[in-house]
Amino acid sequence: MIVKTSRRITGILLFTLIAGCSQTDKSADLGASSGQGQQQAATQQSAVIQGACPQVYLREGTAIHRAYAKGAKDDPSKVLYQATLAATTRQCVQTENSLKVTVMAQGRIAAGPAGSAGTVTLPIRVAASDGENTLYSNLAKFSVTIPPEGTAQYVFTDANVVIPGGAGSYAKIYVGFDEGPYNTK
């Protein structure tokens, strides 16, 4: 009896997690001025098949960012801070022509031997590609505060990743630190 109940609860939680990860938004004019139109709009929203919501990957070599004191490079005693990215997730909303993806990455920041508490700016890039084609690229200036304790966790979010609707199952999304120029494509 306990095993059956436990399996049911696990199944419900799993279904809720999958359904909450993605949704569809077909917000065409469905007569939203009437209550019936609003009901129709609500019933036409359904979960996107998980395979159509592109996976988010940490690009190799870009999950760690270190800042050094002026004039020092690769000297462990001169590290101001070190930031890392560890876990990623995403949520997709499909419209008739595109797939809007909210990308999130969890990270950690720690003051180094030459560092102290304060606010720092991390260069985090989110890019979506379909093979050789770049579908989206944005390099964000993300502010994080290092507390007096010296370490903190943070969550980076880019809610504006929009890719063509048909690219979802073939596209890959990458997140990582990038010290290149700040630009948006």
Count of alpha and pi helical runs: 2
- The residue-averaged pLDDT reads 77
Largest sheet: 5 strands, mixed
From the helix content, strand content and strand pairing, which structural class follows?
alpha+beta
Number of domains: 2
CATH class of the largest domain: Mainly Beta
Protein name: Lipoprotein
Organism: Mycoplana dimorpha
Question: What does this protein structure show overall?
Answer:
The chain has 2 helices and 9 strands; from the N terminus they run H-E-H-E-E-E-E-E-E-E-E. The chain is α+β, with helices and mostly antiparallel strands and 185 residues long. The chain has 2 domains: 1-47; 48-177, Immunoglobulin-like (Sandwich), CATH 2.60.40. Strands 1, 3, 4, 5 and 8 form a 5-stranded mixed β-sheet that branches. The chain has a 4-stranded mixed β-sheet with strand order 2-9-6-7, with no helix packed on it. Strand 4 and strand 5 (98-111) form a beta hairpin. The radius of gyration is 21 Å and the shape is elongated. Residues 1-47 have low confidence and may be disordered. This is Lipoprotein.
